[in-house]
């Protein structure tokens, strides 16, 4: 999709301060979210709850509004109506730079790694929530704590090792295969040990085996954190999600467990004409991974 619009400029920040959050429960609640881009209604009164420790899938045909809702959760798009709470507290005027402080990490479509930095440095940037002096100061060559730097390095190395990518630590992202770059982007999101992980199409560009590994990883992560997953690959979504919300033309048309959603005729209807087949419950889809209807 094209460039994202334009959150309204805000004076001051009122997004929830993590230090005052208190509530232990990593629950994201989005209620009555509507978004209009000029004359185009991208979302109309959509609600969903990502329960603590659960994987919540967001699916729908092309143009359904998935990325728009994801971007609302990231603070990239400001909703025209609706509200959000995170850990039981209102989340207002959220901006993307506040996510880390709230215990939220995201990966976006594509990989978004910095080409001029090594893999390890890219991942270290994601760990800044844990640094006192901060990696930003390292970037700016400001005085910093060597201990912080060592800790960052260790955390980033461990995150890469978790994703079997530690062997690429000293490499630059541009020369690496796309699936490896995706793993590095995921390591960067995980190194901060988020309580909520927002994943926008993490399986795009992956082969069958890599997708299977990604599924295992997401299942391993659930329980440790809540996950909101936007994804076109139906088999993956049906395998890893605890609950699923289905959008079509900006509206919620179904929600429930994978089995409930698969059995919902409204979902099959929404995908008619698409080259994605919604597999019957328990069955793998022969066309898993198809997506565009043009
Ligand atoms: N920045 C924008 N400006 C104008 N219209 C937009 C913008 N972003 C999205 N839209 C429109 O909003 C609607 C929802 O788009 P969105 O990208 O959220 O859908 P999606 O479900 O993520 O689609 P896809 O699966 O193709 O990525 C579409 O009609 C799209 O054209």
UniProtKB/TrEMBL annotation:
MF-aspect GO terms: ATP binding; ATP hydrolysis activity
One GO cellular component term noted in the UniProt record for this chain: plasma membrane
UniProt feature, compositional bias: Polar residues: 7-17
Enzyme class per UniProt: hydrolase
InterPro entries listed in its UniProt record: AAA+_ATPase, ABC_AA/LPS_Transport, ABC_transporter-like_ATP-bd, BCA_ABC_TP_C, P-loop_NTPase
Enzyme Commission numbers on file: 3.6.3.-
UniProt keyword terms in alphabetical order: ATP-binding, Hydrolase, Nucleotide-binding, Transport
Positions of region (Disordered): 1-24
Keyword Hydrolase: yes
Keyword check for Nucleotide-binding: yes
Location of the ABC transporter domain: 28-274
Name this protein carries in UniProt: High-affinity branched-chain amino acid transport protein (ABC superfamily, ATP-binding)
Species: Modestobacter italicus (strain DSM 44449 / CECT 9708 / BC 501)
